Amino acid sequence: MVFMRSLPPLVFWMLVPATGLYAKSVEEIAAEVKPSVVKIMQVGREGLDGLGTGFVVDADGLIATNLHVIGEARRLEVETADGARHEVTEVTATDSHWDLALLRVKSRLKPLPLGDNEQIRQGQPVVAMGNPQGLAFSVVDGVVSEYPDLIDEIPMIRLALPIEKGNSGGPLLDREGRVLGILTLKSARTENLGFAMPVNELKRMMAEPNPVLMERWLTIGVLNPNLWQPLYGARWSQRAGVIKADTPGSGFGGRSLCLWQPDLPPAVFEAAVEVKLDDESGAAGLAFCSDGGDRHYGFYPSAGKLRLTRFEGADVYAWTILADVPSEAYRSGDWNHLRVRVEETVIRCWVNGRLLLTQEDSALRGGRVGLCKFRNTVAEFRRFQTGVDLAAPSLPVAIASSLRGALDQLAGGDLSQDEALERLLADPVAGRQVMTSRRSELERQAAELREMEGELHRRIVTRELLAELAKLEEEIDLLRATLLLARHDNADVDIEHYMQAFARMVEDLRPDPALGRGTAAAVRRIREYLFDEGGFHGSRHDYQSRSNSYMNEVLDDREGLPITLSVLFVELASRLGVKEVYGLPLPGQFMVGYKEGPEGELRLLDPFGRGRGLSVEEAALELTESGAFDEVALRPATKRAIILRMLRNLLGSALDDEALVRDSLPYLNLLLAIDPESAVERLTRARMYQRLGDKPAAAADVRWLMEHFPEEGPDQLRLQLEQWLNSLQ
Fold this sequence. Notes:
Elements: H1 2-5, H2 9-15, H3 26-33, E1 37-44, E2 47-58, E3 62-65, H4 67-70, E4 75-79, E5 85-95, E6 100-105, E7 125-130, E8 138-151, E9 154-160, E10 171-173, E11 179-186, E12 194-198, H5 199-207, E13 212-213, H6 214-217, E14 228-231, E15 236-239, E16 242-245, E17 256-260, E18 269-277, E19 283-290, E20 295-302, E21 305-312, E22 319-325, E23 336-342, E24 346-351, E25 354-360, E26 368-374, E27 379-387, H7 397-412, H8 417-425, H9 428-469, H10 478-489, H11 495-509, H12 519-533, E28 537-538, H13 551-557, E29 559-560, H14 562-575, E30 581-584, E31 591-594, E32 603-606, E33 612-615, H15 616-623, H16 639-655, H17 664-674, H18 679-691, H19 695-707, H20 715-728
Parallel strand pairs: 28-29
Antiparallel strand pairs: 1-2, 1-4, 2-3, 3-6, 4-5, 5-6, 5-13, 7-8, 7-10, 8-9, 9-12, 10-11, 11-12, 14-17, 15-16, 16-27, 17-26, 18-23, 18-27, 19-20, 19-26, 20-21, 21-22, 23-24, 24-25, 30-31, 31-32, 32-33
């Protein structure tokens, strides 16, 4: 035993697992376990609708998996390693808290032995089997990182092994082939970290089953076909009065409809519903005047704005966006009440009781009303109504005044909460209406104040940044300027903290003798320090992420864009007194240039490529079609130009993402504050103001463009600007 105690932990576990004297190899475990692991398939209208893993826990066809693997109201099949398919006849038990489920098939299968998660030890080697990314019966080994690890108050097994889509529900095994847990979650932070539910919770569920036959399971949450008709194949379900659509439809853009069946609306009618989106880049709301096919109207939130669209065909070329406007009344991520009124030639739309638009359009009339959803968002609907007039009845003036007075007295401290509630209970319906109205008004005011607070912060940062850039070139603190750029988006950025962190980097390098041996030697040493020792590197995965442009996050994560990594390099060299090192605005990629003395040969360094060295000719061959740079590209970038280039990167990332387009306006404002003569950004901002419904602001930018229009500019373009300005006035 003295010998065993002296062994490294992993070797010790190989020889002496929790019990027994021999740990099986991964190959042995895979061969033994494979006949007991199954693929679990959700079978939908269009075929395979979902894929996960399960494993046999009882010879009488009992299979364990995660609850999220089986979904709701879906026909289920399992496939064993020999290719045999078995239809699930019963959902034997479910537990939403632990995300566990037991399924039954009418077949004799080989079960896996269940272990005891109380015997788990940190560092213990484990094996997992599943169907990651649809790759059937794959095996992977790793170790237990931590147990128990509380995730949302649930004690789980944290694992140092990768869990991918399709692994969910698979067995986690010790090195004797016994089940310790059920694979459940993949970490959002790193590839090789996952979580498993402890097997003892599965054993408790097996001891207390709550069986549901498949014919009954298939009806859970299913919409009543006498009331609703789903179209275009999306998954629509209903629970506790809430209708949910959680998969894209088969129509173009993920379009799906769910039409109300009991009656056709009259010639003049209204429809209303409350809707909530889990992802504002999607869209969901009311459909009306539907012919049961491709023709209908839709009124719905999309990317934070409200859109009215006329659909007359199967694809976007037959769709007409009649209106696409923002509204302060809309609450992102919350329930929003949508209401439409269809008259002979006019459509009126409200959001949360506020009239949003009155649109003249009579192309479609008649047909059914219902719900619509687009793209990948999960949408929930409740309180759907149709009728001739769905406006909330107005309260009598005296009653409304009395109830509002109770709330005013409560706010002023003249009434206790109980006393105010008693006053409101004198007329419960009216009391609830007044309370809801007051809450909505306060939420609107709070939203306005938040927006004003954000704009005040951005203007303060803009002043600070303009003051920094107004200094002489050699006095501008470029690092501070880049941190101000990050703080423009995030008020929590502590600039002094990051300045101090950077100062420590400078002090780390200052004593190094290589810095005194000339520019080339100093550049090599800074390169080693940043990229070999410090781990700084170019963004590997999400190049367009705004995090790569925020200097605070570059310092935290040691990952960035060519320009942010170049700024770090150049600023280190500057603070260490290394001469002739500067940023180069090469076409397509920012790099660092340096010379051994003012007359030395220009050499390039690519911070995005971990500091690799290049000649000017090599870089030109990589970055240009001609194989040569023009003179401007090889001039050192000014600090102001660097900030503008970083700002344009941020602007581009916002304009490239429909969900972030509204975020582009603060970048345009800041860019034009720094460079007010930029006609391109002025034109972009005018279009953005118009898109957001701010015609006066758009007109002001168009006027500036006309006043600064070059004399030699084309007459056709001048005429277009005049027509545009006329349309905005």
